[in-house]
Amino acid sequence: MTSVRWSGPARLDMAEIDTYYADRAPEFADRVLLQAIAAAHFLSEHPHAGPQIGLGPARKWRVRDTPHLLNYVFEGGDIHILRVRHERQDWRPRS
Questions:
Q1: What three-state secondary structure class fits 45?
Q2: Does the structure show a pLDDT above 70 at 1?
Q3: pTM attached to this predicted model
Q4: Which CATH number fits domain 3-86: 3.30.2310.20, 3.30.2010.10, 1.10.1660.10, 1.10.1740.10?
Q5: Residue-range domain boundaries for the chain
Q6: Where are the beta strands (DSSP E) in the chain?
Q7: Could you tell me if 93 and 82 are in contact, meaning their C-beta atoms sit under 8 angstroms apart?
Q8: CB-based contact 5:80 (threshold 8 Å)
Q9: What are the tens digits of pLDDT across the range 35-74?
């Protein structure tokens, strides 16, 4: 199985999601985090599942039952989660 590596910005995104929803909807905060981890696990088994973003190597994958997306690349046999973004945010990676 392919391993998953979370970038610093992706870890920060997860912390910010948790902080944002913690007081508003704690159950949803937990769901986003658990579903993001489950999505990353799925990608470790199916690294090319997400559609490519533009012409670069980055791909995206929806976090189930949430409005969030994982931006990731498959490099060196590993999944690298670049960001965890809300679908209404600017989620496209910069060149």
A1: helix
A2: no
A3: 0.88
A4: 3.30.2310.20
A5: 3-86
A6: 3-6, 59-62, 68-75, 78-86
A7: yes
A8: yes
A9: 999 999 999 999 999 999 888 899 999 999 999 999 999 9
